[in-house]
Amino acid sequence: LDAAIAGFRRALEIDPTHNAARLNLASSLIPRGDLVAARQILEEAVEKVPRDIYARQNLASCYGLVGEDEKAIETLEPALEFQPEDQGLRLAIASMYLRELQVKKAEEIYQDVLATEPEHTEALLGQARIAYMRGQAEEALATLERIIEINPGTSGPYAYNQMGMIHLRAGRYDEARQAYESTLKIDGLNGA
After folding, report:
1. Under 8 Å between Cβ of 59 and 46
2. 57-61: long-range contacts, CB 8 A cutoff, minimum separation 24
3. Which of 36, 62, 76, 167 is deepest in the core (most CB within 10 A)?
4. CB of 140 within 8 A of CB of 128?
5. Based on the number of CB atoms within 10 Å of its own CB, is 145 exposed (0-12), middle (13-18) or buried (19 or more)?
6. Do residues 45 and 68 make contact, with C-beta atoms less than 8 angstroms apart?
7. What are the contacts of 56-65 at 24+ separation with CB within 8 A?
8. Under DSSP, is residue 76 helix (H, G, I), strand (E, B) or coil?
9. 3-class DSSP state of 73
């Protein structure tokens, strides 16, 4: 990692306009925990190339790592102007809206995604979270069960885990145990 960081820094010394080197440098600094330097580099990358969606996504992730979700949202929202149909980008923003308790904005995105892709498990998971936040535990559980039916191997463990949490908080300990055991069973089949 140190050699890669040194190489990216050298590339930027040779060509300060090399945004890919800038992004790679920032991406190399994050695993080392140097979030301040990564953030500065990513802010510079976005400033130099405002339409670079990848730079915006990385900067938003960096903000998210330090709990600055509002800045993450401000960084990503303009990217929708450049790529309004990018579902991954839209879902990332919806997730940040939920963390900031901007439920209505998140719900609008999830509903829009589900209007074109009714079995999109990430959007369904967002809907389940919203239902639970609104005190609609049974609706949340039904949505989580639907997610498991659609994609048991990949989305199932997370959905079962959420179901376990809901049952546990409601004092339904047997149901919680069963949900957690299902998570472990699927994770075991997936080699996790």
Report:
1. yes
2. 57/89, 57/92, 58/23, 58/26, 58/27, 60/92, 60/96
3. 62
4. yes
5. middle
6. no
7. 57/89, 57/92, 58/23, 58/26, 58/27, 60/92, 60/96, 62/26, 62/30, 62/35, 62/38, 63/39, 64/96, 64/99, 65/30, 65/35
8. helix
9. helix
Asked if 55 contacts 24 with a C-beta cutoff of 8 angstroms, the reply is no
**Residue-wise DSSP of 8-68:** HHHHHHH-TT-HHHHHHHHHHHTTTT-HHHHHHHHHHHHHH-TT-HHHHHHHHHHHHHTT-
Q: Which of 73, 20, 29, 83 is nearest to 51 (CA)?
A: 83
* Residuewise pLDDT in 10s, the chain (192 residues): 789 999 999 999 999 888 899 999 999 998 888 899 999 999 999 999 999 988 999 999 899 888 888 999 999 999 988 888 888 889 989 998 998 899 999 999 999 999 999 999 999 999 999 999 999 999 999 999 999 899 887 888 889 989 999 999 999 999 999 998 888 887 665 555
From the number of C-beta atoms within 10 Å of its C-beta (0-12, 13-18, 19+), residue 169 rates as exposed
Map residue 160 onto helix, strand or coil: helix
Token pair 């953030």 is at which residue?
Answer: 39
